[in-house]
Amino acid sequence: MSLDDAQIVNVNNPQQLSSPDSTLQRQVLDLGSKRSRDSERYSSISMSHREINDGDARLVHVNDALKTNERFEFAGNSIKTAKYSLFSFLPRNLFEQFHRVAYIYFLIIAILNQLPQLAVFGRGASILPLSFVLLVTAVKDAYEDWRRHRSDRIENNRMASVLVSDRFQQKKWKDIQVGEIIRFSADDTIPCDTVLLSTSDPTGVAYIQTINLDGESNLKTRYAKQETLCKTPEKDVINGFIKCEKPNRNIYGFMATMEIDGKHLSLGPSNIVLRGCVLKNTNWAVGVAVYCGRETKAMLNSSGAPSKRSRLETRMNREIILLSVFLVALCMAVSVCAGVWLKRHENELEVLQFYRKKDYSEPEVDNYNYSGIGMEIFFTFLMSVIVFQIMIPISLYISMELVRVGQAYFMIRDNKMYDETSNSRFQCRALNINEDLGQIKYVFSDKTGTLTENKMEFKYASIFGVDYSGEKTNFEGEQRGYCIQVNGQVWRPKMKVEVDKELLQLSKDGNNSEAGKHIYDFFLALAACNTIVPIVVDTPDPAEKLVDYQGESPDEQALVYAAAAYGFMLMERTSGHIVIDIQGERQRFNVLGMHEFDSDRKRMSVILGFPDGSVKVIVKGADNSMFNIIDKTSKLDATEGHLQSYSSIGLRTLVVGMRELGVPEFERWQSSYETASTAVMGRVALLRKVAINLENNLEIVGASAIEDRLQKGVPEAIESLRKADMKVWVLTGDKQETAISIGYSSRLLTSNMHQVVINSNSKMSSKTSLEDALITCRNFLVPGGSVALIIDGTSLVYILDDTELEEQLFELASNCAVVLCCRVAPLQKAGIVALIKKRTDDMTLAIGDGANDVSMIQMADVGIGISGQEGRQAVMASDFAMGQFRFLVPLLLVHGHWNYHRMGYMILYNFYRNAVFVLVLFWYVLFTGFTLTTAITEWSSVLYSILYTSAPTIVVAILDKDSSRRSLMAYPQLYGAGQRHESYNSTLFWLTIADTLWQSIVVFYVPLFAYWKSDIDGSSLGDLWTLAVVFLVNIHLAMDVIRWTWVSHASIWGSIIATCICVIVIDVIPVLPGYWAIFDLASKGSFWVCLLGMQIAAVVPRFGVKMFIQHCKPSDIQIAREADKFGSSMELARQEIELNPSRR
Question: Is 446 a catalytic residue?
Answer without folding.
Answer: yes
